[in-house]
Design brief:
The complex is a heterodimer of chains A (about 260) and B (about 700). Chain A is α/β, with parallel strands linked by helices and about 260 residues long. Chain A contains seven helices and eleven strands. In chain A, helix 3 packs across helix 4. Chain B has four domains: about 10-45 and about 85-245; about 285-400, Fumarate Reductase Iron-sulfur Protein, Chain B, domain 2 (Orthogonal Bundle), CATH 1.10.1060; about 420-560, Rossmann fold (3-Layer(aba) Sandwich); about 575-699, Rossmann fold (3-Layer(aba) Sandwich). The longest helix of chain B is centred in the N-terminal third of the chain and has 31 residues, at about 160-190. Chain B is elongated and about 100 Å long. Classes of the chains: A alpha/beta (about 260), B mainly alpha (about 700). At the A-B interface, helix 5 of A face helix 17 and helix 23 of B.
């Protein structure tokens, strides 16, 4: 099975202190460290496991700049066979639909049976997967937390629904799935692995390579524009108990009872 | 036993069996040689290991640990028993060979024993045989009646080894009886015929048997003599050929195992012997994945393990119910070797050792991650079997395969991008020192090309970033400043020492952290390094190269106390009873046991008690560095056990000298419900609190 996983490089929320810049229109990016968008990593692991079971190959692609090559290398160190950097000046400022348009053009350059995305980007809005499927006119399932390959170009997948329940579906290939974290346990990639793929060439694709109209992507085509960033003000309502352990236990029981809990 | 004056008639009793004896000799020797040759096959396929240097040092260790049985008395009863058996074997070795040769050459006398030495040697061997026999009886009784817990085999590791042990003990006992009977029959025969008699040692086994045989007829004695010889010979070769199939193989391998044992225990095994760091990228596979990835010496360790269980008896992971028992790391690998390299049939190798039970794996992932590398097992092993290097090598193999628990992946990634496991910003590394109130009492400069200093205080991640442990950092800085040290820190230029990164098998990341720190330290131009973190201390001292001398703060304090630069105010609270908990990487790994104790004893009015497990038998707090992120499967926390040991010793203050010990102890005090009854304090904090400062003297 030929699988494409669309990945993205994002500021790592666990290793950064996200602050607004002085203009208030973006976050302070000077000392940020980046990593692979976490759900995308699960998608790559899932793809690797599928390839290990049924054969085929795995391509990871990202829309971005030179710096984003880092995450492609990381996923190639995990085991992805090919990495592709989709980059062009004209792509900057794309909204979700713009990114989906670019990816659609790339998908149509190849022959992929299955396209995976992470459930959402940590700095995004969970838009691209669904839009990509719609633009390609492929079936789409979101929040996928298990995949089983069936006979006859079909998959059996489960999706997480409210209350932690699972819904089982059959879906025809080719299709687009957005992958929920927890579907698997992604393997570890260390510096050694990354160093081993450091010299593998990563092809790049631009507007003309993909046969795109520059007006259909990038800032001019964006219909959703970011106008502001703000940090919510600290609300009240949290109460910190300062008593001894026994006093705190009594107080917690009181509070639970007051809110209608068991008495 | 066998003197030239023996009569021809007595000796001729053996003549009819000569062909039989010779055949058994040949069969036994050929059999043993073949088995040993087969046992060597995996060693030849194993990885290389440099163990041929410093022969004199190695011989010295053979004298101490092999001939001197140095570690044995750590377990009083079993140890003394073993020393007797071992001494008996050494003494009896000559006699055994003499007896064997006598069967085919009746007038043989071992060179050197033909003169006066002969009878003296005979007396000694009579007693030796008796002692070994008695030891076997005691050993069997211990196994059957007293059943020391450390011999038990938990069901997950298979069936018990008692039957095998008793079989072997009985064979040795039988050997002793046959040997004694052989001597007794001869002497009885000589007595009956009025010939000159060799003196048998009074009350020894041969002496008793001889008394019993005195009234027997000469032909009966002849048959007993012949029979005893045959039983002795058969038992001897049966033992010889059976030993390489089980725990008694150590009789043959122990000498070599100790000679080739690791000399520099504090230095971790390199990824691959003979491959420099620069060339590591060309090594295709890291660590141990299949049995053949072990070095030949590590395989010899597996053969040499005597299954005594002392390692696991001292292993903190084992004692809190983690799925790790060092004894079975060896036993399972030995069984694997026996199964995959059989004495008869073809060797079939190559299976993955960790995980994948279906494909022949023998270790579980949790088993290998459960080790805190505290070194208690290695400290105890009488045969100097190594464990830490094997665990680290197995982890290297798992890391190389991407097989790392999710809980460890985040901190490893953060170490890669931020240089600390918490993912905190580099620029906040010196915040602990830069808080305004603290700056006013103790100025800590950040060393760079403009601000030089003599001494670097290497803080490391936990003390820099953990709110609670920052107090250890501040206490350390105040002590250094009190003794007039011109010191500074690296601040944001300091990355994690990588001590646990290396011990968790991530060698490449460790090397990156190390190289960064070495450059930063060299650029600072300092002449010495001090740290309050034993893990950083161990890394800088042994894992790094070409650095200025490194000291732990407890060494600095001890020296300054002796020099009179540090004086203490007396302890105010008379109810406080202190106990010192040895951090593994200060104590066992670096033998710093006395400095911290000397410092404590120099504080007036400080009452100190020792826990039953202290110094080189200290019980690990639960592990430091990345181990704090690992979520082990366990019944209880190591720290809780340790805190309970402190309570048992009658202490209510645990002093330690390691920020990780502090984390684990303080957590454990809460978990054990001892809050208010027990506290933990770092040595540096206590010293800082008790130091008599000039200003106070004036006041």
């Amino acid at each position: 099975m030929e699988i494409l996983v669309c990945v993205r490089r994002v500021p790592d929320t666990s290793e950064n202190e996200i602050q607004l810049n002085s203009a208030g229109d973006d976050i302070e990016r000077d000392e940020l460290v980046y990593s692979i968008n976490e759900p995308d990593n699960y998608a790559v692991e899932e793809a690797l496991q599928i390839v290990a079971r049924v054969g085929g190959s795995l391509t990871v692609a990202t829309v971005g700049g030179e710096d984003d090559e880092e995450v492609l290398r990381r996923e190639m160190a995990m085991g992805a066979h090919h990495g592709v950097l989709i980059t062009d000046e004209a792509f900057s400022g794309s909204d979700g639909r713009g990114i989906a348009t670019i990816l659609k053009a790339f998908v149509q350059k190849g022959k992929y049976d299955l396209i995976l995305t992470g459930v959402q980007a940590e700095d995004g809005g969970a838009q691209v997967g669904g839009m990509l499927a719609a633009l390609l006119d492929y079936p789409f399932a979101s929040l996928v937390n298990s995949i089983e390959v069936l006979e006859g170009k079909k998959l059996k997948i489960s999706r997480e629904i409210a209350g932690g329940n699972k819904e089982m579906n059959e879906i025809d290939l080719p299709c687009v799935l957005s992958i929920q974290t927890g579907i698997n346990e992604p393997r570890y990639v260390g510096m050694r692995g990354i160093r081993q793929v450091a010299s593998v060439p990563i092809p790049t694709y631009g507007v003309t390579d993909l046969g795109l109209d520059a007006c259909s992507v990038g800032e001019p085509a964006a219909r959703v524009k970011r106008v502001d960033y703000f940090v919510p003000e600290l609300g009240t309502g949290a109460e910190i108990l300062h008593g001894s352990r026994e006093e705190n236990i009594d107080r917690v029981l009181e509070l639970v009872a007051a809110k209608g809990g068991p008495k | 036993m066998v003197g030239p004056e023996s009569t021809a008639q007595l000796m001729s009793w053996l003549v009819p069996g000569r062909t039989l004896f010779l055949s058994i000799h040949l069969l036994g020797i050929v059999g043993f040689s073949y088995i040993v040759a087969r046992r060597l096959v995996p060693l030849l396929r194993g990885e290389c290991d440099f163990r041929f240097d410093r022969p004199l040092v190695r011989l010295g260790r053979v004298f101490k640990y092999w001939l001197g049985q140095w570690k044995h008395p750590r377990y009083r009863t079993a140890g003394i028993l073993h020393i007797f058996i071992f001494a008996g074997f050494i003494v009896l070795a000559l006699r055994a060979f003499t007896v064997l040769i006598v069967g085919v050459s009746q007038n043989f006398v071992m060179p050197g024993l033909s003169g006066r030495a002969g009878p003296v040697y005979n007396i000694v061997t009579d007693y030796a045989a008796t002692i070994v026999f008695l030891c076997m009886v005691i050993a069997v009784i211990r196994r059957l009646v007293f059943k020391p817990e450390r011999y038990a085999v938990p069901t997950r590791y298979g069936t018990g080894h008692t039957a095998d042990a008793i079989f072997l003990l009985s064979l040795i006992a039988l050997l002793m009886v046959a040997d004694s009977l052989f001597a007794a029959a001869k002497t009885a025969g000589q007595l009956q015929q009025g010939q000159p008699v060799e003196v048998l040692a009074a009350l020894s086994l041969p002496w008793i048997l001889q008394k019993a045989l005195l009234s027997a007829s000469l032909p009966t004695l002849g048959s007993v003599y012949f029979g005893a010889y045959l039983v002795h010979e058969l038992t001897f070769y049966l033992l010889l050929c059976y030993r390489p199939f089980g725990i008694q193989f150590h009789v043959e391998t122990s000498l070599f195992n100790i000679y080739f044992a690791k000399l520099d225990r504090e230095i971790l095994k390199p990824v691959r012997w003979g491959v420099s760091d620069e060339h590591l990228d060309q090594v295709k596979s890291f660590g141990v994945k299949t049995f053949e990835d072990f070095t030949w010496k590590h395989m010899l360790d597996f053969y040499s393990c005597a299954d005594c269980g002392r390692c696991s008896d001292n292993c903190p992971a084992n004692s809190v119910g983690r799925p790790l028992s060092p004894r079975f790391i060896s036993i399972k690998a030995r069984d694997y070797a026996f199964k995959h390299y059989p004495v008869f049939g073809r060797a079939h190798n190559g299976a993955t050792l960790v995980g994948g039970r279906d494909s022949g794996g023998i270790y579980s992932e949790d088993e290998i991650w459960s080790c805190t590398t505290c070194g208690a097992c290695e400290e105890e092993c009488p045969l100097l079997v190594e464990y830490i290097d094997k665990i680290v090598d197995l982890r290297r193999g798992m890391v190389d395969e991407g097989n790392v628990p999710q809980s460890l992946q985040k901190p490893l990634k953060a170490l890669e991008s931020r240089g600390n496991p918490y993912g905190k910003m580099e620029k906040k590394k010196a915040d602990w020192a830069n808080a305004r109130e603290f700056q006013q009492t103790c100025y800590v400069k950040t060393l760079d090309h403009r601000n030089g200093g003599d001494t670097l205080y290497f803080v490391d991640s936990i003390t820099s970033y953990d709110d609670r442990m920052q107090s250890i950092g501040r206490a350390t800085a105040k002590i250094l400043s009190h003794v007039g040290e011109n010191f500074g820190i690296l601040g944001s230029a300091e990355k994690d020492s990588g001590h646990e990164v290396r011990r968790f098998g991530e060698e490449t990341l460790f090397m990156a952290l190390r190289d960064h720190n070495v450059d930063a330290i060299k650029a600072s131009g300092v002449r010495r390094i001090v740290t309050a973190d034993p893990h950083a201390y161990n890394a800088l001292k042994h894992d790094y190269k070409d650095l200025p001398p490194v000291e732990h703060i407890s060494q600095v304090i001890a020296r300054e106390v002796k020099a009179g630069k540090i004086k203490f105010n007396p302890i105010k609270n008379e109810d406080s009873v202190y106990t010192y908990h040895d951090p593994c990487y200060l104590g066992r790994h670096n033998q710093i046991y006395d400095d911290p104790r000397d410092v404590l004893d120099a504080i007036p009015g400080l009452k100190r008690v020792e826990m039953s497990r202290s110094r080189d038998r200290s019980f690990c707090c639960g592990g430091g560095g990345l181990m704090l992120f690992y979520e082990p499967k366990e019944d209880q926390r190591m720290g809780v056990k340790r805190v309970e040991m402190a309570a048992e010793a009658g202490a209510n203050v645990i002093v330690t000298a390691c920020p990780f010990c502090m984390t684990n102890m303080e957590d454990a005090i809460k978990v054990a419900g001892l809050e208010g009854k027990m506290t933990a304090i770092d040595l540096a904090e206590l010293v800082d609190q008790q130091i008599a400062r000039e200003s106070q003297k004036v006041a």
